[in-house]
Give the backbone structure.
Amino acid sequence: MAENFLVKKVGDLPVWAWGLVAAGGIGVGFFIVKSRSTPGIPGQSQASNVASGNVLPDLSGLSYPQSAGQITPGAPFPTVGPNQTPVFPGPGWAPILDGSGNVVGWNPPPTPGSTPPPPTSKTVTVRPKTTAGTFAGWDKTHTGVPIRSAANANAPVQSYAAFGSALKVLPAQLTGGNNFGNAFWYQTQGGGYVSTSDAMG
């Protein structure tokens, strides 16, 4: 009897064909409803789609600081995903964190083509005074290492940097005359030159 029921025609199709049409319609309807409530990859939650970068979160209604470093006290910052990743106002914005690691504002992305300026100086340490070895003869009769008028051991001495002191120099080493087997020099901020044999950093 069951065979007769499935083979029986209702309209132009047998009952079993109408069953397939109904199941297909229910499946398509379920898929449409599911895709509208969870954009992104079917079968994943909204949070997992957002966290994996498959879709952008719905940011409607959220407000963000209009300038770098602007803080909105007490305002919750929107987050997404299981790790509560903060949502930033746009690509490249960097968070400003307080001492506890809480997001308190944003720094805007760097201007395209801009590079940070090179450092204008660095601090090197003048070698300590010695009583033996290569520098002992100099150290016995001087209060510090020589700052010369040119990057050459034979150039006149302009001044001295005290043994063990900190000295501000331009960051790049220069090649100059040989000083105890070393031809590298730093230019000091005052315009003189100190051998890298005498100042390290």
In short: The CA atoms of residues 109 and 115 lie 12 Å apart. Residues 59-109 form one domain.
